[in-house]
Design a protein that fits this description.
By secondary structure, the chain is an alpha/beta fold. It folds into two domains: 179 residues, Rossmann fold, CATH 3.40.50; 59 residues, N-terminal domain of TfIIb (Single Sheet). Helix content is 30%, strand content 34%. The protein contains seven helices and eleven strands. It has a seven-stranded mixed β-sheet, with helices on both faces. The protein has a four-stranded antiparallel β-sheet with strand order 6-7-8-9, with helices on one face. It is globular, with a radius of gyration of 18 Å.
């Protein structure tokens, strides 16, 4: 997964405001952290944009991702910066650290890529193991509403100057699995585009399933919020943030 996709990921996520995301994480720290976190783990960090944004704000950062290509992109972006997160290539379902951290963040619906409940438990169990006492675990999910009303069996396409994509979804309501068939055309020269094909799957986890998994491993759910707010999610929320503690 991501062997070619990693190198176009940043171009496809130019609309993601990582500064706003970091602002929101710091707001959650101020609301819920007993002490301001210093050492943070960014789980499933991708190409490291959020990791680097938080590092610039003075946090000691560790970025973990299962894709070596994603981490190579992260390393390239951090090469000329004064901040230097620790980049670790590990699967989030079996990651290992040398010690504990003050907070763990996992954003951009990375949890939805876990399509098996046992895998969800594995990740949450490791989070519990590597969090300092009263440390915060902040993560988000695409909500069931988003899968059933926005992503379900939908088609998206976009043409930009240097890249174009076709995105076709199919949703299995019984399994609550959404399959994304992605085709990209990336400009390499004035006359040449390279085609990349990618298939991904996400699970529409219910709030009840997330709560059950947290409870099963001994993490305490502190609160749930609609995206970038301190309000609770409603029936039409597309992204929900969870705050849990060890």
């Amino acid at each position: 997964m991501y062997s070619d996709f990693a190198y176009v990921y940043d171009r496809l996520t130019q609309d993601v405001d990582y500064s706003k995301m970091a602002d929101y994480i710091e707001l959650l720290f101020s609301e819920y952290a007993i002490d301001k976190p210093k050492l943070l783990l960014d789980l499933a960090c991708g190409t490291g944009s959020l990791t680097l944004e938080l590092a610039r704000r003075g946090y000691d950062m560790i970025g973990i991702d299962s894709s070596a290509d994603m981490l190579n992109c992260a390393l390239e972006k951090s090469a000329d910066l004064e901040v230097s997160p620790l980049w670790v290539c590990q699967d989030m379902r079996s990651f290992e650290l040398y010690g504990t951290v003050d907070a763990i963040v996992c954003t951009l619906d990375s949890i939805n890529y876990l399509t098996d409940f046992d895998d969800l438990l594995s990740v949450f169990r490791l989070v519990k193991n590597y969090l300092n006492p009263r440390g915060l675990f902040i993560f988000d999910i695409n909500t069931p509403y988003k899968f059933e009303n926005i992503l379900r069996d939908n088609f998206f396409c976009e043409v930009r100057e240097d890249i174009a994509y076709i995105w076709q979804n199919s949703y299995d309501p019984a399994a609550k699995i959404c399959t994304f068939d992605l085709t990209f055309f990336v400009r390499e020269t004035d006359d040449l585009y390279r085609r990349l094909d990618e298939v991904q799957q996400q699970k529409a986890w219910s709030y009840e399933e997330i709560k059950a998994a947290l409870a099963d491993v001994g993490l305490r759910l502190v609160n749930m919020h609609d995206q970038y707010t301190l309000e609770p999610p409603d029936e039409k929320s597309e992204r929900c943030f969870f705050i849990a503690t060890a």
